[in-house]
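Example 3.2
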Amino acid sequence: MKVALIQLAYGDDESVADRTARVADLVRAQAGHDLVVLPELWPAGGFDYRHWDERAEPVDGPVARALSAAARDAGVTLHGGSIVERGAPVADGDHGVWNTSLVFSPSGDLVATYRKVHRFGFGEGEPSLMDAGEELVVIDVPVAGGDPVPVGLSTCYDLRFPELYRRLLDRGAEVFVIPAAWPAGRVGHWTLLGQARAVEDQCVVLQCNTAGTHARHEMGGRSQVVDATGKVLASAGLDEEVLSIDIDTAATLEWRRDFPVLTDRRLS
């Protein structure tokens, strides 16, 4: 499976419309990949809480339409990072706003959404402005010349909760995709936890972080690809960068057979 992680950098001086057009062109430039991944909340600003309300949109809004066209033009499965989604509240008292990932097929169809389950902010930020997702999502990503690969979806702060990944594993995931807006001050946790999730679940981990500085928050970069043994196969620096790598997905199943730790589980 050939993967591209677009570690996007942006600041406060770039409009959403300009950023969206720039991102769509970056996606189009990844033609030939099976899967392309963008960071969390890149249209609205990962820490730009004060603008989230005005930048919220439905899953068929202008950002989604631009990503759909870019996925179709490039012929790739596109994990579009995430948007601030606005929709009908699920229950009384809900905000009707979510941190929602969008996945598009190579034909441009929206084939999956994932609403972030764990909201960061300790009662402020996301918890005060957004609703929590409830559903776990695993999708099959088509691969040129091979079988589809089951990919489990999560977002940023979810990385700190290993039980989510164990459930994705139990639903068949062989790869975890984790878009993020992870700050520089805690980037050591970002890289460490990615390796931990790979080792404990024997899955490939694709972590796509944000670069640059926005809303007075310096982002951590350091996107990485980790194989099912915990080995870092590729890693980015602190600036905007595209990580492109061919992943031997068959090696994941071979490792599980050679070192069958998962068969010794006793608690679920």
